[in-house]
Amino acid sequence: MISARPNLAYLKAAWAAHAGISAENCRQTYEEAGISFERVNHSWIVRKDDTQVSTMPLRYTRQELRMGFLGRIEMEARKAAAEIEGVLLRDLDIPDDHLLVVELEESMRHLRRKGARALAIFIVPTASAELSRRACVQIQAFLDAPRACLFAHRLDAEGYAGANLLAGCSKRERHPRASSYVELGQQIVATLNTALEQCLDATHEPMQ
């Protein structure tokens, strides 16, 4: 049975294997990258250190191996994204005049094409949001391990970033790390709920 939970050990190993033969490491040998192969019947079992990261046919190219890594990584990354989104939808106090936007498919395209590791998530105001109560939140949730970067600002009348709503937060709150993507989502919620309440409280004085 296929697990609905992301395999964090696999993600760590597969991203490391991909990085070991990509970009500045494109000329590195498989041995130097810590990648080994075991032939089983008509295929190769590919391992990064002791973790299986792919299965390849007997004849393949280096580019096909890289794409094989990213294909399986995408499967696990989608599970991670689903866990984060589930927590945000359940626990994040998003005002009625703001929307949660999870750019899943765009992020997956960047993953497949460029090996990008981040899931982009935004909270944005709707057209009906009061000018004095608008905020913009950006979450960069990384898909190699449960970690993220958070940005949150009030918006001025022209829609530009104003006061930093996370100015009083610690680095750990702005750049959370966790042992699972569910826990990461919970940390994000705890930080952003406070920031959104600060910005969107109806008693907050309008910006000049």
How would you explain this protein's 3D organization?
The protein has 208 residues and is α+β, with helices and mostly antiparallel strands. The chain has two domains: 8-76, no CATH class; 81-200. The protein contains five helices and eight strands, in the order αβββαβαββββαα. It has a five-stranded antiparallel β-sheet with strand order 4-5-6-7-8. β1 (35-40) and β2 (43-48) form a beta hairpin. α1 (8-20) packs antiparallel against α2.
Question: Helix and strand layout, with pairings?
Answer:
Layout: H1 8-20, E1 35-40, E2 43-48, E3 51-57, H2 62-91, E4 98-102, H3 104-114, E5 118-125, E6 135-142, E7 147-155, E8 161-164, H4 171-174, H5 181-200
Helix pairs in contact: 1-2, 2-3, 2-5
Count of distinct strands: 8
Kindly report how far apart the N and C termini lie. 58 Å
Radius of gyration: 21 Å
Question: SSE string, helix = H, strand = E?
Answer: HEEEHEHEEEEHH
Largest sheet: 5 strands, antiparallel
Going across the biggest sheet, name each strand in turn: 4-5-6-7-8
Could you tell me the mean pLDDT? 91
Shape, per Cα inertia axes: elongated
Which runs of at least 5 residues are low in confidence (pLDDT < 50)?
none
Quickly count the helices: 5
